[in-house]
Amino acid sequence: MIYPQKGRTQQGDEIMRDDQSGTEQNAETVRREIAAFALEIGAVRLSPEEPFTWASGYRMPIYNDNRLLMRYPRGRALVRAGFLAHAGLGAADSIQAVAGTASAGIAPAAVLAEALGIDFYYVRSSVKGHGLARKIEGLSREEALLEKPLAGRSVLLVEDLISTGGSALAAAEALQEAGANLVGCGAIFSYGFDEAPRAFSRLAPPCPLWTIFDLEFLLGVAAEDGGLSQEDMETIRRWREDPFGWGEGR
Ligand SMILES: O=P(O)(O)OC[C@H]1O[C@H](OP(=O)(O)OP(=O)(O)O)[C@H](O)[C@@H]1O
Ligand SMILES: O=C(O)c1cc(=O)[nH]c(=O)[nH]1
């Protein structure tokens, strides 16, 4: 058997060594590396001529595919380190479980649950139409018998990406309805639109929303490292003038 050389995409050990420190400096280092890596592997794609349709239905010229980050050992190590470095996880001791949003939030949530050595669930966007007919998967036999299966459990929701925040909000509501004490929602990436915090402000009790990095930060890294072409930077600049109106009539 031929074993692959340990290239950049397979490195991870050195990131994992001190990813528990949770300092701002560490968070900043990981944020830089994850943004640079996302650009390097082509996770950020631009297609103004044939726009992407987002989950919210909007037509947009940009698509950030975090699933590609999860493909690589280095990407998984950076995601793990990014979550662990976040100040919101300073109270990690009080978190009893991580719940991922289906489907792209499942892998990062499982990676984090493993790193913290705690339980893992995932939340479907709708109740499954067959089998156990569940919306929240991973309930123990005992939990499944309860009307509020997650009553009293402190759960962190993990999403891969926040655009309007609608998908994460739906999962958060499902967890709260199941009785969970939702301690926060952490995502790998956010576009930084006002829509997401606005959507989350509807939650009662409130749930802090935070991300490892956002579009503004990614563009800063791209400008310094040349991770995006001038043409792509210009496309993004024009789109950002009116992101939700950009796709009208296209
Ligand atoms: O903030 P929002 O406007 O809700 O958009 C973000 C959501 O869109 C994507 O999921 P998608 O529905 O494409 O499904 P997938 O996770 O199964 O790929 C992404 O994984 C987020 O869940
Ligand atoms: O809003 C979305 O659906 C969306 C945007 C994006 O950039 N990447 C993604 O996976 N989903």
- Shape designation: globular
Q: List low-pLDDT spans.
A: 1-5, 16-21
SS summary, helix count: 10
- Write the H/E string, N to C: HHEEEEHHEHEEHEHEHEHH
Q: Give the DSSP E fraction (strand runs of 2 or more residues).
A: 15-25%
Q: For the report, how would you describe the main beta sheet?
A: 6 strands, mixed
- Span between termini: 50 Å
In what order do the strands lie side by side in the largest sheet? Answer: 7-6-5-8-9-10
Assembly classification: single chain
CATH architecture: 3-Layer(aba) Sandwich
Which ligands are bound? Answer: 1-O-pyrophosphono-5-O-phosphono-alpha-D-ribofuranose, orotic acid
Total separate domains: 1
Class inferred from helices and paired strands: alpha/beta
Number of strands: 10
User: How much helix, percentage-wise, in residues?
Assistant: 25-40%
Mean pLDDT: 91
Gyration radius over CA: 19 Å
- Which CATH C-level class is it? Alpha Beta
